[in-house]
Amino acid sequence: MSVVEKKSTNEAAMAQATWAEVSLSALAANYRRLQSAAAGAEVMGVVKADGYGHGAAQCALALAQANEIPAQWLGVTDAAEGAAVRRAVKDPAVRILLMRGLLAGEIESAMEAALTPVVWTVAQMDALEAAAVRLDIKEFAVHMEIDTGMSRQGVSPAELPAMLARFTQSSPLRLEGVMTHFAAAEEVASPQNDSQMKIFEQALEQIRAAGLRPEWIHAGSTSTVDAGSALPVLLRLAERSKTRLMCRAGIGLYGYALPLTGAASQVHGELEPVLAWKTRILSISDTAPGARVGYNGTFIAEKPMRLALLPVGYADGLRRELSNAGEVLITGKRARIVGRVSMDVTIVDVTAVPGAKAGDEVVILGTQGGERITADDHARIAGTIAYEILCGINVRVPRCYLSGDEQS
Ligand SMILES: *Cc1c(COP(=O)(O)O)cnc(C)c1O
Predict the structure, then answer these.
(1) Helix (H) or strand (E) segment spanning residue 65
(2) Which of 55, 98, 118, 395 has the fewest Cβ atoms nearer than 10 Å?
(3) Which pLDDT tens digit goes with each residue over 274-285?
(4) Which residues of the chain are in CATH 3.20.20.10 domains?
(5) Residue 152 above 70 pLDDT?
(6) Top CATH class, 38-263
(7) pTM to 2 decimals?
């Protein structure tokens, strides 16, 4: 992903057809809000998937260096991303959890970058142990994931004894953390949450009974912090297992959260979107009534119209579902997308945006004047979630990093 350093955003952006502005101060403020809502639990800053499209290394550094509450733990996808985050955040006291688990080919680079992998199979333990011996590493911390009912990754209760037996005195592998992931944290009243919590509790008891003493347990995501209702239960589990509790927050850091059912939101309304996505008008044209617009003529002008061509398309991650449905902001006014979103360009209706001219800044996501368009708006139209919209902004869209309050 190309990165434009914030010397002069305008200057750098002038050369770009479309770009994203990432406010690192908004990111730090969101982290602060989540951490203070977490009721004494530590909050891991999840920067996986390239920081949900915001840039993993830049976001990791901003979180680790945040003034009042710096993040102690960061969560990444794989060894390559973890190594990039480690190059940005050199302090070994800042821990980096490799959340997706390791492929055999990633083990040595993960160890060299002092990453902490999540493990859940005996084969992973064997491969890690062999690598630690080969690299002469005396002690290597791992976190074990318990599958409490999501059937994604994690050791099942039935397989747990075999896993626990692998943490022998002579093994360089040390069980530092035990984690699980809730399948429906935003559906607060879902019975699946209670059943997952119960299985997690039983696993923690088995782990203590096996004589193992992890320092951390972690569970839950942004929704868990936002709802707050599972936090007392998790804090009691931590207390009983003599561990510390951590929640892993991703989407909330970037200013979004899933709508909750069954509980009031504690922080969602205070979170600020971190990313603004912009472009500028390439050209303006007037069309006569009857003109067909874009591929397959899915829009037909019924009156004389003024159209603006934008140099952004689905190859940038602008969802094709926004065809004839999405809007952008130009001079603080909403302009509707007309016709199909093309690969590299999109047409918008500026008939009611007098004065719109080539070169004008266009907001795809963000605020302009009193208007705002969010990733939730795009997600609603595209039938998905804000996560996918943010992660879907293509790497060819350069990210500019704003460290103060420059973001408009
Ligand atoms: C992505 C992820 C999270 C963060 O979830 P958000 O909803 O983005 O806060 C937490 N835990 C695990 C295991 C994840 O994969």
Answers:
(1) none
(2) 395
(3) 999 999 999 999
(4) 38-263
(5) yes
(6) alpha beta
(7) 0.96
